[in-house]
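Lab notebook, bench 4. Still working through the backlog of constructs that have no structural model yet. Next entry is a single chain of 135 residues. Request: give me the structure tokens for it.
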Amino acid sequence: MIPERKEIVRSWYRKASSDLAYAKLGLTSGEVFRVGAVYHCQQAAEKAIKALHCFYGLTPPKSHDLVRLVELLQPSCDLQECLKGAEFLTPMATEFRYPGESEEPTEADAQRAWEYAEFIFRNAEFLIKDNLSLL
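Model written out:
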């Protein structure tokens, strides 16, 4: 892998890792941080998936649609087990961020968002680490 591409993958991965850390902090800091926590869950998953796009030599589109991003990875890698989480997390990028759009996320929503985000992140991390000493 050329060094420039390796660095792009590493950068997406680090940003995903940072978002995952922000999400965890938000989840443990009380109800007032829940909206930010679910947003960062979505962002962690999105950036982890985009790291995989770069890893496989693809240019990730500017999109928050995680299902689309996962599907675009076919046939480079199989993330079918991540589709349910991608579907759940996609609206977290925008749904709760503005007043009047929808109800606030529940604690159960936030916990589920965390579990899906971590699952997607760990799958991406495994594929990258397994094939390259990037991290």
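Notes after review: Residues 126 and 132 are 10 Å apart (CA to CA). The domain at 3-131 is CATH 1.20.120.330 (Four Helix Bundle (Hemerythrin (Met), subunit A)). Flag for follow-up if needed.
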